[in-house]
Amino acid sequence: MSERIVVGAALVEDGRLLAARRSAPAELAGRWELPGGKVEPGETADAALVRELREELGVDAEVSGRVPGEWPLRAPYVLQVWTARLRPGSAAPEPLEDHDALRWLGPDEIWDVHWLDQDVPAVRQALAHLGAVEGLRSRGPGSGGLEEPGA
Ligand SMILES: Nc1nc2c([nH]c(=O)n2[C@H]2C[C@H](O)[C@@H](COP(=O)(O)OP(=O)(O)OP(=O)(O)O)O2)c(=O)[nH]1
């Protein structure tokens, strides 16, 4: 079967990254992820992300770039991550579907939540990318910023 893309948003505002806690399915519930979802046939990845963010969070978002890389999920899915921001006048995000909590994480809080295992490398790469383009960066060793869990 050919690969199917799940898009995740590295949605940033005021130097903080949005994390969303899944409410379903049972094996993923309680773990944190980048909000997003599956790209539908005939849909572009960035259009899918804008649609998913509207459906899941009730926001009006725009995609600003692609985080290099691709991370395997349960076959046939792979995760791609795009940077995004809220458009002026957008509502604040709310956990409308698929999630039961949201958190804006500052640089020192990124690893405070229990990310889905497969999201850890994707979040790490997103932070490296965002650090380069938006200044969301670690405050250095010992700060808990960009360091990996247990590092
Ligand atoms: N949205 C999202 N899904 C992720 C991430 N990491 C990860 O393993 N997944 C998995 C969870 C799901 O099995 C799948 C995405 O499905 P979804 O339920 O979010 O997508 P969807 O809204 O299009 O779902 P559906 O109801 O159409 O099935 O990818 C992530 O960071 N974001």
Describe this structure in words.
With 151 residues, this protein is of the alpha+beta class. The protein has two helices and seven strands. The protein has helices at residues 45-57, 119-134; strands at 4-13, 16-22, 32-33, 36-38, 61-72, 77-86, 99-105. Strands 1, 2, 3, 4, 5, 6 and 7 form a seven-stranded mixed sheet that branches. Strand 1 (4-13) and strand 2 (16-22) form a beta hairpin. Residues 138-151 have low confidence and may be disordered. The structure holds 8-OXO-2'-deoxyguanosine-5'-triphosphate. 8-OXO-2'-deoxyguanosine-5'-triphosphate (8DG) binds next to strand 1, strand 4 and strand 6. One of its GO terms (biological process) is DNA replication.
Question: Any key phrases for this structure?
Answer:
8-oxo-7,8-dihydroguanosine triphosphate pyrophosphatase activity; binds 8-OXO-2'-deoxyguanosine-5'-triphosphate; 7 strands; 19% helix; 34% strand; disordered C terminus; Nucleoside Triphosphate Pyrophosphohydrolase; alpha+beta; seven-stranded mixed β-sheet
